[in-house]
Specification:
By secondary structure, this protein is of the alpha+beta class. It contains ten helices and seven strands. Helices cover 65% and strands 12% of the residues.
Length: 358
């Protein structure tokens, strides 16, 4: 069919869209056509055939229809595959190659008879078969191979994403108990020596868990929720460290509904507390900022704490997982930079595509 022919030729120039999970669905996508395409195919085939007949171009007509035979066979097989069980890639490739080669061999005697009837010598058999099989491979097999390659790449990306998600959940499962144990131990100490602070710490802990637990089971969050979670966490840490820790949150106007991966900001905040506050004997201020820059969401976590050397941070498991998570979810559309200037503040800058939650 010309519809299959046109879509196949286009597929050799522009990779066809990814089909479903099965090879038969991919074959239908590459070689099949809709009823409307089939009608137009018939019109185009008839028009070209009539034009060739009027010009008495019998040699051209013979080769033209011979080239269409394998495409018609593969197209019919693609439509017939709806009535058959799904096949894997190896059986599908076997069917395609057999149809291209077999239909060309079966049509060759018809081409010889056509040449004898109209008194032209025609091409040699091996040349005719090479042209027909090569044309079939170019217009059907090549697009199908592209679809298979793209499907394999998507499966690999999905497996990598699943592995990364499992790794992140395992990491979170390791971090959360450590944080809870420390917080509950501090609460028990404060309950004996400063009951008012103990109550405040429990209030913030309850609010933190109320925000964090749904995020651990969801694939998306908003900037407002992540800032709220970070605020409760920093409030807990401020009670723990006393006057040594102060914090400031600055979420830009209109960004509350901006889409953000859950618990990603918390990784940066926890990193700031661990490396900026705990080793620092003096006061430390942690600042969270969110702004729009060049059409993207920019989230900044700044601490003026330990002021370590530039090569002291950035290669830990948490930040490595954060970078891998960004790459898996956004590719080149997101980024993370950790700037550590000796004697100055540490800047953790997260850049994400700006999307507003519906």
């Amino acid at each position: 069919m010309i519809g299959a022919l046109l879509s196949s030729v286009q597929g050799t120039l522009i990779p066809p869209p990814i089909a479903g999970s099965s090879a038969t669905e991919a074959l239908r996508r590459v070689a099949g056509c809709s009823g409307r395409q089939g009608a137009w195919s018939a019109v185009i085939v008839a028009a070209l055939g009539l034009a060739g007949w009027q010009q008495q171009a019998y040699a051209w007509l013979g080769l033209y229809f011979l080239l269409l035979v394998p495409l018609l066979a593969v197209g019919l097989a693609a439509h017939a595959s709806r009535l058959l069980p799904r096949l894997g890639w190896t059986p599908t490739w076997g069917v395609v190659l057999v149809l291209i080669g077999g239909s060309a061999m079966l049509a060759l005697p018809v081409y010889r008879s056509w040449a004898q009837l109209h008194g032209f010598s025609g091409l040699r058999d091996n040349l005719v078969l090479s042209c027909v099989v090569g044309f079939g491979l170019l217009t059907v097999a090549l697009p199908l191979w592209q679809v298979q390659s793209q499907a394999a790449a998507l499966r690999l990306a999905a497996l990598e994403q699943a592995a990364l998600t499992a790794e992140l959940k395992a990491l979170q499962a390791q971090i959360e108990p450590h944080f809870l144990y420390n917080t509950l131990a501090n609460t028990r100490y404060l309950a004996r020596h400063d009951p008012d602070k103990a109550v405040r710490m429990l209030d913030h802990l309850i609010a933190y868990l109320h925000s964090a637990l749904p995020d651990m089971r969801s694939s998306g969050s908003t900037l407002a929720r992540e800032f709220e979670l970070a605020e409760h966490y920093l409030a807990l840490m401020a009670i723990r460290f006393g006057e040594r820790l102060s914090y400031r949150l600055d979420c830009g106007a209109g960004l509350a509904d901006a889409v953000m991966p859950p618990l990603m900001l918390m990784s940066l905040v926890e990193n700031a507390v661990q490396h900026g506050v705990e080793p620092m004997p003096g006061p430390v201020c942690i600042t969270l900022q969110a702004r729009v820059h060049d059409g993207k969401l920019c989230v900044l976590v700044i601490d003026d704490g330990a002021r370590l050397a530039p090569n002291a941070l950035g290669s830990g498991v948490g930040l490595s997982n954060l970078r891998a998570r960004l790459q898996a979810q956004y590719g080149s559309g997101a980024g993370f930079v950790l700037r550590i200037e000796p004697g100055k503040a540490t800047h953790a800058a997260l850049t994400l595509p700006l999307e507003l939650h519906a």
